[in-house]
Amino acid sequence: VSDVPIGAFLIAPFHTITQLPVGPAYLDGLKSISLAGNTLTGPIPTEYFAMPKLESLDFSRNGLTGALITTKDSNMLTSINLEMNRIGGNIPTDINNLPLLTSLKLANNEIMGTIPPSLFEIKPLQHLDLFSNNLAGNIPPGISAATLLTSLNFANNDELGGTFDAGFSELVDLEYLSMVNVTRLGGRIPDSFGRRVTKLIELQISNTQMGGNLPDSVGNLKELKILNLSNNQVRGDIPATIGQLSNTLTMLHLNDNVMSGIIPDAVGSLVLLEELLLDDNGFEGNVPTSLSSLTNLEILTLDGNLLTGRPADEVCALANGDNSKLVEFVTDCPRVENFETVGVICAIPTCCTSCRTA
Predict the structure, then answer these.
(1) Distances in Å between the alpha carbon of 245 and those of 40, 201, 227, 240, 253?
(2) Which of 4, 28, 216, 275 has its C-alpha lying 20 to 30 A from 189's C-alpha?
(3) In a 10 Å sphere around its CB, with 0-12 CB exposed, 13-18 middle and 19+ buried, how is residue 165 labelled?
(4) Please, where are the H alpha helices in the chain?
(5) Helix (H, G, I), strand (E, B) or coil at 299
(6) Which residues, 6+ apart, have CB-to-CB distance to 114 below 8 Å?
(7) pLDDT single digits (tens) 70-98
(8) Is the Cβ–Cβ distance between 41 and 64 less than 8 Å?
(9) pTM of the predicted model, to two decimals?
(10) In 3D, which of 276, 188, 272, 177 has the Cα closest to residue 232?
(11) How far from chain centre, in Å, is Cα 10?
């Protein structure tokens, strides 16, 4: 039985298996196993990690426990998907015993400890999803060696930290990067990142300790659809080069930072924007009339800034026009301080939907 030339072992019906059978692990010719979406519990038998020809292992969306195990006997594996289980323990330090691994998905588990540097010694690695675990320590600087990565998700590991620096600029094939709620992450987006990582479609670094300015090179990210840098310590102006993303950008979240200066007219070039969140910064000046071009806008938050004046009628038309999509437009309520009116004079509900009191 051990030499059965079988190409795949697939059990498709959901919710039909509750324990992992050991038998299939002895089929040496097995290349692919998928038992996703059942009600499997208990640890994964060690035998599954010792199958000499196994290339793909998918036990996602179950209730499996235990730890991830790697052995040199499973060195043909290219894809492991264990997301949405209750896998614990650490990522093995000998994870590089899987030299052909292109995809490792461990999201929504209970994995703890640090990320071993050996993980980024796996040269073919393209997809790494560690979302929502209990990882701690620093992201290894050696991540810069994983130059074939196209998607990288460290989000919701609030004990994870490290420095966002020029090493990330080596990930030139990266399309999706999420570091939301990596609360101990510091550093800044270097200019080289915008110049080199030009295939990015989503960049989400939120609720971290990252600071620095948003570099002018952000304008080189011509494929970018989502830019979320909210709840950080990003400072300085919005670079005018942001307007170069007019053909792709649909979501721009820069709220809850320490940014300053005026909102540049270039933001009005982002005609595909559906969400523009700039609240809780230090922006000043008037609401730019150029925002009237953002006819796809659904959410616009400008409160918690130092803006003054009155939005132009063209901007108000975003909320009250015949084809309006804007459902939320928030500014600071006008008030008198030292005999001067501060805040934005904005009629509710014909222009703004609400305003924030001081």
Answers:
(1) 45, 11, 10, 11, 14
(2) 275
(3) middle
(4) 191-196, 313-320
(5) strand
(6) 90, 135, 136, 137, 138
(7) 877 778 999 999 999 999 999 999 999 99
(8) yes
(9) 0.93
(10) 188
(11) 31
